[in-house]
Design brief:
Layout lengths: L12 H13 L11 H14 L3 H19 L2 H17 L1
Amino acid sequence: MKQPKLSDLKIDVSGTKRMRSAMAKVKKIKITVNVDEEILASVRQMSEETGVPYQTLMNKILKDALSSRKKDESRLDHLEREVAELKKKLSA
């Protein structure tokens, strides 16, 4: 694939400002976490393939996993937990 010339690229100043503004609104906290070597290698490989920084990619993976977990939890599961809690309270 042919690389574009820098002289052919156009800078979208207003788009860049909008993007930076949106990114500034998202609050992130730095933490230290231990991750399996294989997982980190896989995420870094995905990062190279997609061009997304690996820490940003890990954040997205975590966010997607948490949101899918919430979706998977159906109303029935919620009701079953409530019934179990009520049974515990009644038997006590």
